[in-house]
Specification:
Blueprint lengths: L7 E4 L10 E5 L9 E5 L5 E4 L6 H9 L3 E3 H4 L4 H5 L12 E3 L1 H7 L2 E6 L9 H10 L3 H6 L1 E4 L3 H13 L3 E5 L5 H11 L3 E5 L4 H15 L2 E2 L6 H17 L7 E5 L4 H13 L4 E7 L4 H8 L22 H10 L2 E5 L1 H15 L9 H13 L5 E6 L9 H7 L5 E8 L4 H9 L3 E8 L5 E9 L7 H11 L3 E4 L4 H5 L14 E9 L4 H8 L6 E7 L5 E9 L5 H11 L2 E4 L4 H6 L4
Parallel strand pairs: 7-15, 8-9, 8-11, 9-10, 12-13, 12-15, 13-14
Antiparallel strand pairs: 1-2, 2-3, 3-4, 4-5, 6-7, 16-18, 16-19, 17-18, 17-21, 20-22, 20-23, 21-22
Helix pairs in contact: 5-7, 5-10, 7-8, 10-11, 11-13, 14-15
């Protein structure tokens, strides 16, 4: 509802150092329900005055030069909806937790908004419950329907259970059982899980059919004003917690844009000097692309690693709000997301799901690219519904400090050890080599450069090349990281080769001690080591042992002092590593 032509004005105290007169104002261009403080500029235009909290020189400068917003352009109609959102019957006001380790690491004051601690372990309960709590009794009696394979489904199921209404959650047939069971647990007897279709689009078509044929109300995961307002209460809580402290940037995960739009709508209305930055996965950057094009764009495909934010088409309403209020967007890749999961764990002791760590990943990238220090930054940890079978992959890719090189060395005695000596004392996490010919040998080696030595990685590369070892940086090569690193060099025809597995206690310098122990006159034809964080290091070694040298081999193995198992007769060795 809008006012007609009537104007209501009430004079209030003007801000210090301001020549304008401030008024309480309503007009036909502002929603009837909205009442805010505005100031007239020298040209008689309406401008909104926002009072900043804080202290010190920066605060004084802000008071002297208040930020003025054109009220007609700025009003997006969500302030009242957010203030009156019904979320706290189902959701909790989550902690704004200081992240001490991240703060030290990034040289800024970092806070995590812990939405992963909600009853359904994600922020989605806010929007889902707010939407359903505003339905009429008649609508609730007909039931609600939602299509989701993740957090939104759990939010709707939990809300239906609390409100006592029927809910049908349509999920694709391939949805992991852990998510299906979680929805059933939260929904209880009120919720039916219907597995339908081979992908999200087919499941969504079934949900739409239920809406049209059975008169059920669709609970959209993001493109609905009540859902947006529910998520906007996160912004309300952040600003409430930061009344007496500075706040520079809030980083928000973005899938369809509901949370980003809601937080931006509140923050930019109440404290517009705070930047709101959206973060998307690089392979699912629907909002980034749409804002660049100036219209909603449907992506041809999306990556599924951050499946909680993998949306092909953002909402029309979320796009409208974000295009007006969001300061910028950041995209992050899979490795950056995995690293953010690890960094968040160091502070919060929680394993975030990939989408839940997007904001932390974007914040880290933003700080590093812009060389920012001393600011106060908030990242929203939006969900912790991690599939357990993903943990191995996350752990493999989470170490942002690990670098990987493909190095070419001469196939001569001593080259192997000479290569390692140029890396030592840095922590080597992977070493993979397979004999191919009497010419050159190719080695894949991963290690962690020393962080407090400037340009240490470049120094290593230069040192290798100066010693005649050609090398290629494959740190960001997906073929190398996703496949080749897991192969021990392929099949080779090596005379008199014997294969052994060794176990040695894993500790700093353990690999070096093992290599020094391999002081033998025989050629090492295969070597594979990968640090998996276990208490024992595991190495696969091929050794060319001449005929009639069994006694010498036994003496060598006994002197080595490590547990070992010979695998020369293992059929896997003959199928994948040896060309007979």
């Amino acid at each position: 509802m809008f006012a007609t032509t009537r104007h209501i004005l009430r004079k209030v105290a003007a801000p210090r150092a301001s020549a304008s007169t401030a008024w309480r104002f309503k007009s036909s261009t502002i929603p009837e329900e909205d009442s805010h403080v505005y100031a007239f500029d020298e040209d008689g235009e309406i401008a909104e005055f926002v009072d900043f909290s804080g202290s010190g020189k920066a605060a004084n400068e802000r008071e002297q030069k208040p930020i003025l917003l054109n009220a007609r352009e700025h009003a997006v109609g969500y302030l009242s909806k957010i203030l009156n959102a019904r979320v706290y019957e189902a959701a909790i006001e989550t902690e704004l937790q200081e992240a001490k380790n991240l703060s030290t690491h990034l040289k800024n004051n970092i806070f995590l908004k812990r939405e992963d601690t909600q009853p359904v372990f994600s922020f989605k309960i806010r929007g889902a419950y707010n939407k359903m709590a505003h339905l009429s009794q008649e609508e609730l009696s007909r039931g609600v329907v939602a299509c989701s394979a993740g957090n939104h489904a759990q939010g709707v199921a939990k809300s239906a259970n609390m409100l006592g209404c029927r809910a049908v959650i349509v999920m694709p047939l391939a949805t992991p059982s852990i998510k299906v069971n979680s929805v059933r647990t939260h929904g209880g007897s009120n919720t039916e899980v219907r597995l339908f279709g081979n992908n999200y689009d087919e499941a969504a078509a079934e949900a739409k059919r239920l809406k049209e044929e059975e008169g059920m109300t669709m609970i959209h995961p993001f493109d609905d004003p009540y859902v947006i307002a529910g998520q906007g209460t996160i912004g309300l809580e952040i600003l409430k917690a930061c009344v007496s402290r500075p706040l520079d940037v809030i980083f928000v995960c973005c899938g369809g844009g509901g949370m980003l739009a809601g937080i931006a709508a509140y923050v930019k209305r109440v404290r517009p000097g705070v930047k709101v930055i959206g973060v998307e996965a690089a392979d699912a950057a629907g909002m980034t692309t749409s804002l660049q094009e100036g219209k909603v764009v449907t992506l041809p495909s999306v990556g599924l690693f951050a499946d909680g934010a993998a949306v092909k088409t953002v909402g029309e309403e979320t796009f409208r709000v974000c295009s007006k209020l969001v300061d910028s967007m950041i995209t992050v890749d899979t490795d950056q997301i995995c690293n953010a999961i690890k960094l968040s764990y160091n502070d919060a002791r929680v394993v975030l799901e990939p989408a839940g760590a997007l904001a932390v990943a974007g914040m880290k990238k933003y700080v590093e690219e812009n060389e920012i220090t001393g600011q106060t930054l908030v990242a929203i940890t939006s969900g912790a519904n991690m599939d357990f079978d993903r943990l191995r992959f996350v752990s493999e890719r989470a170490d942002g400090s690990e670098k990987t090189l493909a190095v070419t060395i001469p196939e001569t005695p001593g080259s192997f050890r000479a290569l390692y000596s140029l890396i030592w004392p840095r922590n080597v996490t992977e070493f993979s080599y397979r004999y191919e010919s009497d010419g050159d040998a190719h080695v894949l080696i991963s290690f962690q450069p020393v962080m407090n030595i400037e340009n240490d990685f470049d120094g290593i590369i230069n040192g290798l090349r100066e010693n005649g070892f050609a090398c290629l940086d494959v740190t960001h090569n997906e073929l190398a990281k996703g496949h080749v690193r897991h192969l021990a060099g392929g099949r080779s025809s090596v005379a008199h080769e014997r294969l052994f597995r060794f176990d040695f206690p894993e500790s700093p310098g353990a690999l070096q001690r093992f290599l020094l122990s391999l002081d033998i006159e025989w050629n090492v034809s295969l070597f594979h080591y990968r640090n998996h964080g276990d208490d024992f290091g595991r190495v696969l070694v091929g050794i060319q042992v001449p005929e009639n040298a069994d006694a010498g081999l036994v003496r060598f193995l006994d002197k080595l002092g490590y547990q070992y198992q010979e695998e020369t007769d293992n059929p896997i060795y003959h199928l994948f590593l040896r060309r007979d």
